[in-house]
Write a structure and sequence with these properties.
Keywords: Dioxygenase, Oxidoreductase. InterPro entries: Glyas_Bleomycin-R_OHBP_Dase, Glyas_Fos-R_dOase_dom, VOC_core. It comes from Neorhizobium galegae bv. officinalis. With 132 residues, the protein is an alpha+beta fold. The protein has a single domain, classed as 2,3-Dihydroxybiphenyl 1,2-Dioxygenase, domain 1 (Roll), CATH 3.10.180. 19% of the residues lie in helices and 31% in strands. The strands form two sheets. Strands 5, 6, 7, 8 and 9 form a five-stranded mixed sheet that branches. α1 runs antiparallel to α2. The longest helix is centred in the middle third of the chain and has 13 residues. The protein is globular. The two termini are 18 Å apart. The relative contact order is 0.22.
Length: 132
């Protein structure tokens, strides 16, 4: 249902380094930077697998208004790799990889706060040993 979405980041280059690392295990990368002449010089870039879906917009985030966004992983191993990469890139733990059976029996997710305090998650809904 979601076509694309965006978040504000205080320091685009810091956020880019974080998301480059965190999204690599999920097969996503920075696919597009909006030319500065269209943004008034503000850095705006979109991440995705095939097309930009998750946009970073350099601006001052509103204190106390962080976002929660969950990204689909194709396997539990991808969830694990996302978590490790995000933590290594400066993310803060908000729930290590594991089953969250209170959502459903195969909900396997990991949660990390990005440099701006947004709660990002990788989740796989497939049974263990199966691709999602």
């Amino acid at each position: 249902m979601i076509d694309h979405m965006g978040i504000k980041v205080a320091d685009f280059d810091r956020a880019k380094a974080f998301y480059d690392a965190a999204f690599a295990p999920l097969g996503a990368s920075l696919l597009y930077m909006v030319p500065a002449e269209y943004t008034g010089g503000v850095k705006v870039g979109g991440y995705g697998r095939e097309r930009p879906i998750y946009w970073l917009h350099e601006d001052k985030p509103v204190p106390g208004h962080s976002q929660h966004v969950a990204f689909t992983a194709n396997s539990r191993a991808e969830v694990d790799a996302f978590y490790e990469a995000a933590i290594a890139a400066g993310g803060r733990d908000n729930g290590p990889p594991g089953l969250r059976a209170h959502y459903h029996p195969n909900y396997y997710g990991a949660f990390v706060f990005d440099p701006d305090g947004n709660n990002i998650e990788a989740v796989c809904h497939a049974q263990e040993g199966r691709q999602g």
